[in-house]
Amino acid sequence: MKKAFLILADGTVFEGNSIGAAGSVIGETVFTTGMTGYLETLTDPSYYGQIVTQTFPLIGNYGMIPEDYESKKCHIRGYIVRELCEKPSNFRCKLTLDDFLKQQNIIGICGIDTRRLTKILREAGVMNGMIVTAETCPQIDKNLLSKIKSYQIVDAVKNVQNSMILEPLKNAVEPKKTPFYTKDFADGKGKTVALFDFGAKANIERELERRGCTVKVVHYDTTAEQIKAMNVDGIMLSNGPGDPAENVGVIAEIKKLCEYGKIPIFGICLGHQMLALANGAKTEKLKYGHRGGNHPVKDLQSGRVYISSQNHGYAVKNETIPKNAELSFVNCNDGTCEGIAYKNIPAFSVQFHPEACGGPHDTNFLFDSFIKMINALGAGRVPEANR
User: What is the mean pLDDT of the chain?
Assistant: First the structure.
């Protein structure tokens, strides 16, 4: 293997081996604690602009499985693992992780102390970094560090457009319904949902379709008037990358939809944040974010704690939640906002990922809550086409 180096903005250097494509790249260095689901992580558009560190030591053991991708391509800037599995073992595997990274032109590094790196990011907070393939480490001077520090993630939502998997992948296998689907769950048959693509994970669409809904994926800058003209039964605000407050135009259109108040809205992750901003709340950047499949969240209505999958660097500030809404879920580790229920409009949102394809599935019932809200609002309402 060729040598590679990870250089953090504070001057810390890690020496390891090159994986994926060769070259150099600068990005925002983050870590995710998932023990499985690296495939979903690599194809999640929410990681746009970031160098992703896997804290679990062995990655790549079941290879890459295209029918499980969350989007058409990989949006991360770089990839960091402790140990790369070169010979995956899974009957569904189509190619190795290293081959996938090369195919997607993603520069990575393995063989470094990811535990030490994670501790640095937890103590100092998320910081920019640079992965470079070279025989010797580049000279660490003010110019190089200034270049690393100056990197910013901008126009994130705009840059991940058209990443949705709109057609079945070649040789893809139809996903089987998992045990948590029962006849008692809400039926979305005959209902149409507009899914705003802010960098949407494919499993959001899958979960709605499994409940019988027809899903119409719409561009991130679709206007409120265009949505109303579609005569949809519900609106899904998807996950996505970057600073939510950057999306001024999108937030303005969401505000109009809230003022209209006749179409149920469900927001996830970035969609949750922008829905809150549209209703007067504020967001803040977290020290090192929440990323992984083991984050406990508490349902404040029932008192029950669920384990959730998360991937976000920003959060809604609890003290700014408007009077027409209430905190519905809270993070058990740091008390940050994990969900909001609105009182004056048919809308709710969560910061975590109830659609998590790699699991856990604890909060998958929220899709049923959304369908129930659609059915309740639609009771007695005759669709325009049938009048």
Answer: 92
Averaged pLDDT, 102-128: 97
Lateral strand order in the sheet of 337-342: 214-218, 192-196, 234-237, 265-268, 347-350, 337-342, 325-331, 283-299, 305-316
**Contact call for residues 330 and 297 (beta carbons, < 8 A):** yes
Of 272, 290, 312, 353, the active-site residue reads 353
User: To 10 degrees, what angle do helices 270-278 and 248-260 make?
Assistant: 70
Which residue among the candidates 74, 272, 355, 357 is catalytic per the annotation?
Answer: 355
Q: What is the pTM of this model?
A: 0.92
345 vs 261: CA distance, rounded Å: 5
Write out pLDDT tens, residues 167-179: 554 444 444 444 3
Q: Is 269 a catalytic residue?
A: yes
Residue 28 annotated as catalytic: no
Q: Is 205 a catalytic residue?
A: no
Instruction: Characterize 226-240 residue by residue with b for buried, 16 or more Cβ atoms within 10 angstroms of its Cβ, and e for exposed.
Output: ebeeeebbbbbbbbb
pLDDT tens-digit readout, 357-375: 888 999 999 999 999 999 9
347's CB contacts (< 8 A; 6+ apart) are 258, 264, 265, 266, 267, 275
- Token reading at 239: 């996950």
Residue type, 75: H
Q: CB within 8 A of 359, min separation 6: which ones? A: 36, 37, 293, 309
Measured between alpha carbons, how far is residue 282 from residues 256, 259, 285, 310, 339 in Å? 18, 18, 11, 20, 14
The H or E element that residue 54 is part of is strand 50-54
- Using 50, 70 and 90 to split pLDDT, how confident is the model at 41? very high
Closest CA to 188 of 206, 173, 200, 164: 206
- Cα 267-254-280 angle, rounded to 5 deg: 90
Catalytic residue among 269, 272, 338, 357: 269
State how far the Cα of 16 lies from the Cα of 112, in Å rounded to an integer.
Answer: 5
pLDDT of residue 166: 59
